[in-house]
Amino acid sequence: MDLRRRALLGVNGLRVLLMLFHTVARIMAEQEVENLSGLSTNPEKDIFVVRENGTTCLMAEFAAKFIVPYDVWASNYVDLITEQADVSLTRGAEVKGHCGHDESELQVFWVDRAYALKMLFVKESHNTSKGPEATWKLSKVQFVYDSSEKTHFKDAVSAGKHTANSHHLSALVTPAGKSYECQAQQTISLASSDPQKTITMILSAVHIQPFDIVSDFVFSEEHKCPVDEREQLEETLPLILGLILGLVIVVTLVIYHIHHKMTANQVQIPRDRSQYKHMG
């Protein structure tokens, strides 16, 4: 009995040890993150990298700003008026994250954790006329802010921690295996704990890939956002039209030159009938 009990205790101890090892390994993997903002030429843009098992599994570059309404007392100290704070994601922010097969998450903290941004990405499969296709998207955004932070919030009423969340979000939709890129500004509305106040998140200079990164620290092929594609078309359309117009002018001049040369070699029949007697 003692041997069986010792063996059982040994097996249970081994299981506990393996579970502890797995938990520690998972925590270490989640903490393997880097802020590479110093590599960006844009002073407003942050670059975040999440790595697990020595391999990049999530990369994100973007500039973010939050427009946050908050209440202050009016001059009569009876009425409330609404002010607006513009909170930007500052460079050098603390970052956490983890990657999964169909769900990845990025967390960013700045100004001594007075502000926190959580972005959840999911990968989904869909049946289409061409067969099954997979895409990923930004499915949830959570923004936590402390209105007692004096840099952006001055004399805020009911100062303290507040949380704003997205609802049924489906943003940055991208084919699986590709990265999402968009230079244009994109806005996402977040519902605050105060139902009368909506927080606006503004993203710009975005380049994100939360799944299927093939090369370490390298984005896969870009999937351009519709706004960028439209702006690129608007920029190139005048050039294309100019080239077409120039080609039409050149062709017209060539045809005119050939026609003029051919008609110059033909015998000119005099229009004055009096000259007919000298012919022949």
From TrEMBL:
InterPro entries: Lamp2-like_luminal, Lysosome-assoc_membr_glycop. Keywords: Cell membrane, Cell projection, Cytoplasmic vesicle, Endosome, Glycoprotein, Membrane, Signal, Synapse, Transmembrane, Transmembrane helix. Its main location: other. GO terms for biological process: establishment of protein localization to organelle. It is a single-pass type I membrane protein. Residues 1-29 form the signal peptide. It is found in: Cell projection, Dendrite; Cell projection, Growth cone membrane; Cytoplasmic vesicle, Secretory vesicle, Synaptic vesicle membrane; Early endosome membrane. The keyword Repeat does not apply. It comes from the Eukaryota. The keyword Transmembrane helix applies. GO terms for cellular component: dendrite; early endosome membrane; endoplasmic reticulum-Golgi intermediate compartment membrane; growth cone membrane; late endosome membrane; lysosomal membrane; recycling endosome; synaptic vesicle membrane. Pfam families: Lamp2-like_luminal. Gene3D superfamilies: 2.40.160.110. The chain crosses the membrane at residues 237-256. Residues 44-213 form the Lysosome-associated membrane glycoprotein 2-like luminal domain. Plays a role in short-term synaptic plasticity in a subset of GABAergic neurons in the brain. Belongs to the LAMP family. This is Lysosome-associated membrane glycoprotein 5. It comes from Muntiacus muntjak.
